[in-house]
Structure formats: structure tokens, C-alpha cells
Amino acid sequence: MAASALRVRIVSPERVLYEGEADGVVVPAWEGELGVLRGHAPLVALLRRGEVKVRRGDRVEHFAIDGGVLQVVDDVVTVVSEHPQTGAAERIGPAQALRRSNTEGAGPW
């Protein structure tokens, strides 16, 4: 890993959706957008429903989450969310999330 890169993981209880290096990450924290760069202080934050943006160079990858938890320690950023998905958050509405959870065998509880 390059000394100037963050290590980013976006995970659910069932799988790792993304793992890789990044220059920066923006997450939908409970109180607003939160940016994380290399050297960020250790942090744990609640996340609301929205979009996680992972930037590497001039490329940005988007992940939709339905809330979760962020942990930042030693340039490792971990996002834990129940049903993270690749793609922009506005493409994933509540009906799709419910339909997806029902087809995966998980009810609303």
C-alpha cells in the first residue's frame, strides 16, 4: 500500500463489498457529510442512509448504504452497513431495499 493512501473497506454482515486504496472518502454521517483523508484522527460515527464516495485519483466510486457505522483508525476506513450496494444512493429507493431484503430471506426484523 502506498504511504499516501487510505485503506477502505465497505462491509455488510454477510460480505465485503469493497476493499481497496483511496485518496479520500466521503460518508453520510448522522449530522452531515464527513470527509476522511490520510492522517484523520481515530473516529467512530453513526451513518445515515445515503452515498459513500471513494476517491482514487480522478476516479470516484459510489456505494449506497441504508445507514451504518464508520470507523477510522490508522488510515483504515471501515464502513459497516446492513445492505450496502454499488451505485448512487438515489437509484436505490426504500421499495427496492425492502424487496431486496425479502428476496434474500431477511424480513424487516
- If you consult CATH, what is the topology? ATP Synthase, domain 1
The proportion of residues in beta strands is: over 45%
Distance between the termini: 39 Å
The helix/strand class is: mainly beta
Q: Based on DSSP secondary structure assignment, what is the total number of beta strands?
A: 8
Task: Count helical runs.
Answer: 1
* Percent of residues in helices: under 10%
Order of helices and strands: EEEEEEEEH
CATH class: Mainly Beta
Radius of gyration: 14 Å
| Unreliable residue stretches | 97-109
What is the domain tally? 1
Largest sheet, strands/sense/barrel: 8 strands, mixed
Whole-number mean pLDDT: 84
Topology at a glance:
Blueprint: E1 6-11, E2 16-22, E3 24-29, E4 32-37, E5 43-56, E6 59-73, E7 76-80, E8 85-86, H1 94-103
Note down, in words, how this protein is organized.
This protein is mostly beta strands and 109 residues long. It has one domain (6-103): Sandwich (ATP Synthase, domain 1), CATH 2.60.15. It is built from one helix and eight strands; from the N terminus they run ββββββββα. It has one helix at 94-103; strands spanning 6-11, 16-22, 24-29, 32-37, 43-56, 59-73, 76-80, 85-86. Strands 1, 2, 3, 4, 5, 6, 7 and 8 form an eight-stranded mixed beta sheet that branches. A hairpin with a 4-residue loop joins β1 and β2. The longest helix has 10 residues, at 94-103. It is globular. Residues 97-109 have low confidence and may be disordered.
